[in-house]
Amino acid sequence: MTQQLLAQTYQPHPAGPAADSLTLSYEDRFFRRKRLRTDGGQMVLVDLAQVTSLDHGGALEVADGTLIAIQAAPEPLLQVTGDALPRLAWHIGNRHTPCQIEADRLLIQRDKVIHTMLAHLGADVVEVIEPFTPEGGAYGHGRTHSHEHGASTHTHPHGSGDAGHDTEHDHAH
């Protein structure tokens, strides 16, 4: 029987090579505590101090110092291209939609309503399957939920993995 590893530290910019990897979708890379099987078949219990967004290229550190690389899994996305890419990016961001921004295209998770809106705005929208590594957000903390940036309070959804917490919080738009 193989011993289960325990990882309690996340390194966004690991200093050394990884011994194994975890390939996870965007939604699956956001949690505090989870039991996972590495790509090499080893069981690991991830028990972080707080809910964390694990980014592609980061690593979990096991108790003995071993690193487990985080890799973005290929997943169903929409590739958005067009002549007015900055304008299209603005509309995507205005809807709090995670977006991977590249020089000649945008990648977002598949959503029929957003797809229709973008096509109406003149975008070329194509379904693709690729790893998804969206931008971390204006305040550099990705998709965490305890943040304050102003005096307005409102509620909005944060995806299916809300980890059982209250989605009402303060920040300005």
UniProtKB/TrEMBL annotation:
Gene Ontology MF, one: unfolded protein binding
UniProt keyword annotations, A-Z: Chaperone, Cytoplasm, Nickel
Domain UreE urease accessory N-terminal: 5-68
GO cellular component term of the entry, any: cytoplasm
InterPro entries the UniProt entry points to: UreE (IPR012406), UreE_C_dom (IPR007864), UreE_N (IPR004029), UreE_N_sf (IPR036118)
Record field: compositional bias (Polar residues): 1-11
Record localization: Cytoplasm
Region entry Disordered, spans: 1-20, 136-173
GO terms for biological process, alphabetical: protein folding; protein-containing complex assembly; urea metabolic process
Biased composition (Basic and acidic residues): 163-173
Source species, domain of life: Bacteria
Pfam families linked to this entry: UreE_C, UreE_N
Similarity comment: family membership: Belongs to the UreE family.
Purpose of the protein: Involved in urease metallocenter assembly. Binds nickel. Probably functions as a nickel donor during metallocenter assembly.
Protein name: Urease accessory protein UreE
Gene for this chain: ureE1
